[in-house]
């Protein structure tokens, strides 16, 4: 996969993207809960630093979608999905955004979480190589060196990727590296390939003019949702109106991001000042947003609405998580208890809007 700058939308395409955006937001359905005159403070954790993959949440903040529902949301930067999931489950944050299968894993380990809405429908994890490496398929990795971070999300699924891709993993030299050194090792050609989250590996390299290829695990039968909005089951049961408002504001932010990408970048930069420090920093956010969009423009939200969970996918993800990530003997949780579609799926984009988004983000969708 190669990544490039987001293509500027033509005036006509901009009209299609924006036209009906209000209609899409108004299609939320159901009564909106607006809390009392004093805004209700909400602590919300991200899985990582502010970047393109979570830009829609900063858009929700900047555009006042939560504020108009009576919420004062504080977005806190995280230190990985696993830590974010633990913090949410332990109640240190009211809500948060983290890897969906990580939430499933934490629930299986006894720290209950409930997904209220999906933001990304592809975990976007895989193997990254330099474009001039000649490595295009899994089998090309045989005889090569692959660097990974053992604690990284993709690591447990590498054997399944190898199996599905016809790769003899015994013929690959595997080395463990710190996440901060992973890309440096690839750029300096100390290793031939690295594994990890596409949204973390590729944007900075693309912004620096480095061309890469990606083998996404989703291309090899490993279907995992990316990030979802989580809370504790107890909060969902005791305060559904609050959960509804949090999901509503977030999905409005997602709708805006998909229908007005340029406006979303401006909103993100207004909230995250360091993103506007240099053209390179903003370019990195653009690439990350493009990759996030490719994971959000999928069949499930087009058929079920933004945030909608496909029960079959959740069930499949639960099986994969227990088999490849959880400790031996871990009891599998009931997939139906892991999520709710009570608030998700209310905002729907029109077919024209989906097509315009596909056209706009074509460099990433075709990657």
TrEMBL record:
SsuA/THI5-like domain residues: 55-264
SUPFAM superfamilies to which the protein is assigned, alphabetical: Periplasmic binding protein-like II
Protein name: SsuA/THI5-like domain-containing protein
């Amino acid at each position: 996969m190669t990544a490039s700058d987001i293509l500027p939308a033509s005036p006509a395409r901009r009209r299609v993207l924006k036209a009906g955006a209000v209609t899409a937001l108004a299609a939320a359905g159901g009564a909106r809960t607006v809390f009392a005159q004093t805004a209700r403070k909400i602590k919300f954790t991200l899985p990582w630093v502010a970047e393109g993959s979570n830009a829609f949440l900063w858009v929700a903040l900047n555009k006042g979608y939560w504020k108009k529902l009576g919420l004062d949301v504080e977005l806190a930067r995280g230190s990985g999905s696993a830590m974010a999931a633990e913090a949410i489950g332990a109640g240190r944050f009211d809500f948060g955004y983290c890897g969906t299968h990580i939430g499933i894993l934490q629930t299986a380990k006894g720290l209950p979480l409930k997904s209220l809405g999906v933001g990304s429908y592809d975990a976007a994890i895989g193997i990254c190589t330099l474009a001039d490496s000649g490595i295009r398929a899994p089998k090309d990795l045989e005889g090569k060196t692959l660097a990974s971070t053992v604690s990284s999300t993709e690591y447990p699924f590498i054997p399944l990727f190898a199996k599905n891709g016809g790769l003899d993993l015994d013929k690959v030299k595997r080395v463990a590296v710190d996440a901060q050194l992973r890309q440096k090792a690839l750029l300096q050609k100390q290793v031939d390939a690295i594994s990890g989250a596409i949204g973390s590996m590729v944007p900075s390299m693309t912004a620096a003019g480095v061309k890469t290829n990606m083998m996404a695990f989703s291309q090899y039968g490993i279907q995992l949702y990316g990030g979802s909005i989580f809370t504790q089951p107890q909060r969902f049961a005791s305060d559904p109106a609050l959960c509804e408002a949090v999901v509503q504001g977030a999905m409005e932010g997602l709708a805006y991001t998909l229908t007005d990408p340029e406006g979303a970048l401006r909103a993100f930069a207004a909230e995250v000042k360091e993103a506007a420090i240099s053209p390179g920093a903003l370019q990195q956010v653009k690439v990350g947003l493009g990759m996030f969009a490719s994971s959000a423009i999928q069949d499930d939200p087009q058929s079920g609405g933004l945030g909608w969970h496909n029960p079959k996918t959740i069930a499949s993800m639960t099986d994969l998580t227990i088999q490849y990530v959880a400790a031996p003997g871990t009891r599998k949780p009931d997939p139906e208890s892991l999520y709710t579609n009570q608030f998700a799926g209310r905002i729907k984009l029109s077919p024209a809007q989906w097509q315009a988004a596909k056209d706009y983000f074509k460099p990433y969708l075709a990657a």
